[in-house]
Design a protein that fits this description.
This protein has helices at residues 2-23, 27-33, 38-45, 53-62, 67-72, 77-94, 114-120, 124-128, 243-257, and strands at residues 104-109, 132-135, 143-147, 154-155, 158-159, 165-171, 183-188, 191-200, 204-208, 217-220, 226-234. It is an alpha+beta fold.
Length: 266
């Protein structure tokens, strides 16, 4: 396990260096952001030293990344550029159509507010202080928006991507069977996470990721504070066509190329 963790830490140095280069941040400036020394940043990037877990958390929160993404793979340049565009989109969405009668206003709970929300989820004053998103629909039930964290709900480039904003409605625990098979965000004492509801019984909920490489997860019902069904998403990413859609498109293109004169009577 220690060897795997050290291997994962090698991504940290590469990701720090790539983020700095793309955003044109010097080692000294990067160090100042996280109250570190400039030589420490150089040591991380060269693999000579490992950042503390507190530093990893600070970097992930500042650049709106999950620690999972930061640890397990090397970021692409397009992903780093998209961090700013996601932030701009969220800023724009906060004020989208707030005066429209056809718009529902929902609070936005970003990744950096997850633990505060767990503590204050029943405090209306706390919720009212959060940024608001105007959703261009009229809703009969209360809505809230959570930021998607991690890449567990992406499979073959399809699904919910890290940084997406999940439009969600509250599910009463007595109605939880009605959302079986749907994507839900669970609020628990240990945090907030989003997966697909796979099984419900009297003692626990079983959830699965759309990426089958992740294990099933069981959560005892007594530890569930809230269940939110994801009913929509704001995303900067466009999901590519599925395998079946690609096959259908190729078939349609092949049919279009057929000339009437090439079809012979049997």
């Amino acid at each position: 396990m220690a060897q795997n963790f050290s291997k994962n830490l090698s991504f940290i140095g590469r990701n720090i260096k790539k983020i700095r280069q793309v955003k044109k941040i010097s080692q000294a400036e990067f160090a100042h952001l996280f109250h570190l020394s400039r030589p420490s940043i150089g040591a991380y990037e060269e693999g000579r030293s490992e950042p503390k877990i507190e530093t990893l958390i600070q970097i992930a929160k500042y650049f709106k990344l999950s620690i999972d993404v930061l640890l397990t793979r090397e970021l692409s340049i397009s992903e780093i550029f998209s961090l700013e565009s996601i932030k701009k989109k969220l800023d724009k969405a906060h004020n989208l159509g707030l005066d429209s009668s056809d718009t529902t206003v929902a609070p936005l709970i970003g990744q950096d507010q997850f633990l505060d929300y767990v503590i204050h989820h029943q405090n209306n004053d706390f919720i009212e202080r959060q940024p608001k998103i105007g959703i261009p629909v009229t809703a009969s039930s209360y809505l809230i928006c959570f930021e998607m964290v991690g890449s567990e709900m992406v499979f073959q480039q399809q699904g919910l991507h890290h940084g997406d904003v999940l439009i969600s409605q509250l599910v009463r625990q007595i109605d939880v069977q009605k959302v079986l098979g749907q994507v839900v965000s669970l609020v628990t004492p240990s945090g907030i996470f989003t997966k697909r509801l796979d099984l419900v019984n009297q003692k626990y909920l079983q959830l699965k990721s759309d990426d089958p490489s992740y294990p099933l997860q069981e959560v005892r019902i007594e530890n569930v504070l809230q269940i939110w069904q994801v009913i929509g998403v704001f995303s900067e990413k466009t999901n590519p066509p599925t395998y079946l859609e690609n096959r259908m498109l190729k078939l349609e293109q092949a049919i279009d190329k057929l000339s009437p004169f090439s079809i012979r009577k049997q």
